């Protein structure tokens, strides 16, 4: 579904992604792990059109998308739940969900909103509430729910567990599993390496913008290099 080949991304003179190549197959959960500053969020922002690569190719469902406007990429079937949630705090929860569907012109938005809220009962309970008054965990649930409103073929999740209490982290990853079971293809960036590898069909480890390891989630969980660097063992 997604093919990234020899991607190079810069912030001014600073190279954030270095000759990176990865693939995501339809129906997979693929996790990207690495330390702070490894380039994980930069990768997702480049796929979703928020950043433009200097060189390299990004192909989605057979069509090159590098350099495409972000709204066109959403219309093509890629939705991004960003690091830091980035909800519209001055809008209600319902209005945030409507914004997630802004590219759609079909008549199934209401049905899809109900289906998304079935996954996130607390979002349903807060529907008329100002989004800025939600707890951190509720805001994260809203951010993912909003991303689902575009009916994505590929869902980009950037640090969904960041800053959450352990019980909420478990809840978020249970939802990731549920989405996977429903056939949603997911590219997941996550600093909680253990959780990210547990849920992944395959995973990549990147350091300073470069690919250093790849394999199944189960294999990387057992890899001594991953254990030492990211799993505290």
Task: Quickly describe the structure.
This protein is an alpha/beta fold and 233 residues long. It is built from 10 helices and 10 strands.
Overview of the molecule:
- With 233 residues, this protein is of the alpha/beta class.
- It folds into 2 domains: 1-77 and 153-169 and 185-233, P-loop containing nucleotide triphosphate hydrolases (Rossmann fold); 86-151, no CATH class.
- It has 10 helices and 10 strands.
- The protein has helices at residues 40-47, 70-76, 93-100, 109-119, 121-125, 136-148, 166-181, 193-199, 217-222, 224-230; strands at 2-11, 14-24, 29-33, 55-60, 63-64, 78-81, 154-158, 185-189, 202-207, 210-216.
- The strands form 2 sheets. A 6-stranded mixed beta sheet has the order 6-7-8-3-9-10, with helices on both faces. The chain has a 4-stranded antiparallel beta sheet with strand order 2-1-4-5, covered by helices on one side.
- The longest helix is centred in the C-terminal third of the chain and has 16 residues, at 166-181.
- The two termini are 34 Å apart.
- The relative contact order is 0.18.
- The model has no long low-confidence stretch (mean pLDDT 92).
How large is the count of helical segments?
10
By CATH, the topology of the largest domain is Rossmann fold
Average pLDDT metric: 92
Strand order, main sheet: write it out: 6-7-8-3-9-10
Topology, number of strands: 10
**Order of secondary-structure elements:** EEEHEEHEHHHHEHEHEEHH
Global structural class: alpha/beta
CATH architecture of the largest domain, by name, is 3-Layer(aba) Sandwich
Helix % is 25-40%
Low-confidence stretches: none
Cα-atom radius of gyration: 17 Å
Tell me about the biggest sheet? 6 strands, mixed
Work out the count of structural domains: 2
Tell me the fraction of residues in β-strands, as a range.
25-35%
What's the CATH class label of the largest domain?
A: Alpha Beta
* Shape label: globular
Distance between the termini: 34 Å
In CATH terms, the superfamily of the largest domain is P-loop containing nucleotide triphosphate hydrolases
